[in-house]
Every structure is written in C-alpha cells, then in structure tokens.
Amino acid sequence: MSKKKILFYTGSRADYGLLKPLVDKVKKKINTGLVIGPHHLEKKLGYTYSRIRRERIVKKFFCKVKINYNDVDIIKFIRDSIYDYKKIIKRYNPKLVILLGDRYEVLSFALACFFSKKPICHIHGGEITKGSFDDTIRHMITKLSHYHFVCSEIYKKRILRMGEKKNSVYNFGSLGAENVKKIGKLSKKDLLKKYNLDPKKKLILVTFHPETNSNIKYLDQINIILRSLKLFNKVSVIFTGSNADPYGQSFNKKILNFVKLNSQARFIYSMGNDEYSSFLKSSDLVLGNSSSAIIEAPSCGTKVLNIGSRQQGREKSKLVHDCKLVSRLIEKKISKLIKTKKTRIKSNIFYKKNTSDLMSKKILQIIKKEKIHHKYFIDAEK
To answer: Could you read off the pLDDT of 27-59 as tens digits, one per residue?
Structure first.
C-alpha cells in the first residue's frame, strides 16, 4: 500500500451514502482518512455516525464545532470549523482531498484545504439549483478545486466555461445512479410489514427541504406540501427528515404532527442507504425537492414529482415531473401520477457503468503524480 494519503470529507447522511462505494475501493490501495462533520453526531439528525462507525482501515477525524440551524449560526459554524478542519489537515497531511456536493459544511472544509495548500477533487460540480443557496456554494467549491468529477456533459462544459483546465474535468456519471442499482434489496412486502403499512395502498416517499432562495416563507412551504398530501387518504406516506438548512428542524416538527394524525404516514429521519434505496424502488411516487429523487429514482423506474424551485436548473430524466409549490397544482399532479402504472424502463441520464471504478482509478492516477498542478484560471475559447 502506498505511503501517500488521501482524505475524504463527509458532512451529512446524504454525501456519505454516495461516497461509501468510492471510499471502499480507494482504501484498498492507499492510506485513507475520513473527516466526519458535526451533523453526523447530532441526535436530532439521526446520529448517522452510528453507520460510519463500522468502517475499518479508514482513519477517522471529527469536527466537534457545535451548530444550530439559522443563518447567523451557519456563518459562525463556517468561521469556527475552518480552524478545526485546518488542524486535522495539518495532522494527517494528505496528498489529495475528496469532497462531494454543495453544502455549507463542505465549503468550510474546502476553504480549510485551500488555505492549507491541499488540492481538492470535487464531485458533482457544474450543476444548477436556483431555489437553494447551495447553488452559489457549489460554484465556490468548484473554483477552490483542482479536479472535477461531474455526472453529465452539460455540467462538464459549464465547469470549463468557469475557467477550469480541460484535463481536470471528467464525466464519470453519478455515484448515486450507479449505487442504487446495486443496493436496496429489501422487498416492498418487508418494508410495509416493518412499518405496519397497508399493502393495498399506493406508497409515496417524501423528502422536502427548505427552499433557501425562495420568496415563499419557510413554514408556508412545508404547510403547502402537507395540506396537499392530507387530501389523499388512500395512500401510505413515508417521510424522510429535512436537512440541516435554516428551518429544517421546524419542517420536521410539522411533519411529525402530520404523522401523529395520519395512521398510514410514517416519519423516518434517516433510514440508511440500503433501506432508502429499497423505498425508492418500492414506491409508486417520489415527491419533494431532493436531488436524490432526480438523480437516483430514475434508475429504479420510479416516477418523481419535483416540487418548487430548489432543484430548478438541474438536468432531468423523463420520469421527473416538475410542479410549482402551489397546493392545487400539486394535488392535480399527484392524482394523475399515482394512477399511472410504474414503468419498467429504467432510463437515467446520470448513469454510467462502473462510475466508482472510473473515479477510483483516476484518483490513484492523480496520487501517483509527483506534483499536482498549480491551479489558475483558463480563459474560455472564443
């Protein structure tokens, strides 16, 4: 095994589920570290570190900066965590750092890497999500990164227009689109039995996060979703928890109150990657504004109702149907989609065969280089 070291960062349940297959491949070839962000250690957020704890070989580091979930505290977290992350980077001294996504906690780690002069490989850059401040954060991380693993040619071209080198941007497809095909082996019968749900009813999987760039008030957003679902008493509904954005915990409280009053509704904050993938495959409809619905659900042949502006700007497969955050429009779309049969066609524009293999091979090629290239701006060709 090479003496050179690589460092992954995970800030939440979402990115760890995507990164795990890549971590598993890379750690067999090179010394691998994993920095675990504070969201994984929060009981309110499902204490998702309990799943990471089982990882062996990987050297683990923790950011212990406390975080609450309003705008002011996000700023404070970024300020405080950069210093904490910088100490971890200095201690481990990796040759390369791997980041995924567009969250503010990922940005703080990217900034720590930048000031520590450690090159970054960023996964899932070049995308657009107009209804979330993650959109701006994603592009900031791109400009801090040396290498870019994207999941479509459009995203690749966008990063090149941002001034990145041609030989630093690679379209390997999406880890999530690949991973969901390999896991999620629990049957619908077993899932419904576990959560005591009626097998005769249609099943809707719901994940709805705050629209942080919206003119609609936060609590009005979740109230519109719940008001729309309340009309459908002949369906079972599984809610997953909202993320750690401002008002995310308020969303979860509203959902819990809804579940208490509806016998065929369940709230599972964090169900784990295998169970979540099983629900994606077993559901008749996936509803909300989560990127996983757009990127992963089409690999299962499951219809998606993408609501509001949070994911506006992303490329979408034919199984994804957009809808404004308006109750009567949502109700109309649910009625239509829930009646149509599930397609056997599992077409996903983000899927490429062997995505994790392609990424791990490229990472190992980068690591072997004596010197990783200095980063500078490349003017787009006229």
So the answer is: 999 999 999 998 888 877 777 887 788 767 678
**What domains does the chain contain, in order, with CATH numbers?**
2-173+352-368 (3.40.50.2000), 181-339 (3.40.50.2000)
Cα separation, 48 vs 39, whole angstroms: 8
Structure tokens at 128: 């657009």
Of the candidates 326, 244, 340, the one whose C-alpha atom is nearest the C-alpha of residue 45 is: 244
CA-to-CA distance for 340 and 331, rounded, in angstroms? 15
pLDDT above 60: residue 256: yes
Dihedrals phi, psi of 85, to nearest 5 degrees: -65, -35
Q: Token pair of 330, please?
A: 């949502």
Torsion of Cα atoms, 207 then 208 then 209 then 212, to 10°: 150
Angstrom distances, CA of residue 38 to CA of 291, 331, 353: 22, 37, 33
Contact 346, 331 (CB under 8 A): no
Return the SS3 of 186. Answer: coil
Separation between Cα atoms, residue 30 and residue 126, nearest integer Å: 28
- pLDDT recorded at residue 195: 96
CB atoms within 10 A of CB 35: 24
